[in-house]
Amino acid sequence: MRIDLHCHSTASDGTDTPAELVRNAAAAGLDVVALTDHDTTRGYAEAVAALPAGLTLVTGAELSCRIDGVSMHMLAYLFDPEEPALLAERELVRDDRVPRAKGMIAKLNELGVPVTWEQVARIAGDGSVGRPHVASALVELGVVPTVGDAFTADWLADGGRAFVDKHETDPFEAVRLIKGAGGVAVFAHPAAAKRGRTVPQSVIAELAAAGLDGIEVDHMDHDAETRTRLRGLAGELGLLTTGSSDYHGSRKTCVLGEYTTDPEVYGEITRRAFGAFPVPGAGGVREA
To answer: Which of 12, 106, 170, 222 is the most buried (most CB within 10 A)?
Structure first.
């Protein structure tokens, strides 16, 4: 089995629609794919309707978190999307995205970059607006060559010249909310230092004691040495280890199935979850 447990669609900051994502996942030879858009579940219905036969969909989300000034992301799998407490927190995070994006645009304008809200809103479309959409605007304007090049101290990285904070959930609260909604909590790319500051291993240990289920080890932002270190840490703490592409369509260079999750780990995730169940493909809807 080939299992990719971290993918994004146009419901947040990917460039594939949910329907395109599941079709592309099947074409890439995946058996299981997770839809984990940022702080939203809006892509679920479209993905399920288009799900090809032979592909299983894991519903999820990637929650924006922060602790001691360090931004981090928590993958939530197979939770009840209507559970009130987690739903309210996701809406709180999403509602802060628009004023945050407008704040970044104002800072960029002060730096002489003629980006506009209309441009960023067009790029975001129906998705939850975020830094990647602002970064894409900078690419369109020729300010930076790629989206990744916008995530530097000069521009949009944490603490960068155009960075603006947004509401982010305390990770311990995120774990509590995910578990309360019947889901499974996995810390996404915990050692992705190129994205900015990362949390110390002591915090991961504390999260494990608080109910964290696993950490994402095999990821494009982790080199071989880092993956070995994280796998050892997971063994010490009794955490599951996952592997994922963090696919965003054409917005990033990663490809579907670039890193995958062991089938036994996937089985354990499905055993632990009780908020929702994986959805087996039944053929999907035909394209017009």
So the answer is: 12
